[in-house]
Design goal:
Blueprint: E1 11-14, E2 22-29, E3 32-37, E4 41-46, E5 52-54
Antiparallel strand pairs: 1-2, 1-5, 2-3, 3-4
Amino acid sequence: MTTEILEPGMLVRNREAPEWGIGQVQSRIGDRVTVNFPEMGKQVLDGRRVRLELITDNS
């Protein structure tokens, strides 16, 4: 998924680290996404390297 669609408040999961839980997007500046995860706290991720999965009502 491209990070361009991410906005603050959206819920995401790090596909490579599902144990982090479902995180809430705090901000996105370019490819840098800040996400607050319940098990890992606030993480600044490089959207070019980390594959985030958008969580929707259907997920």
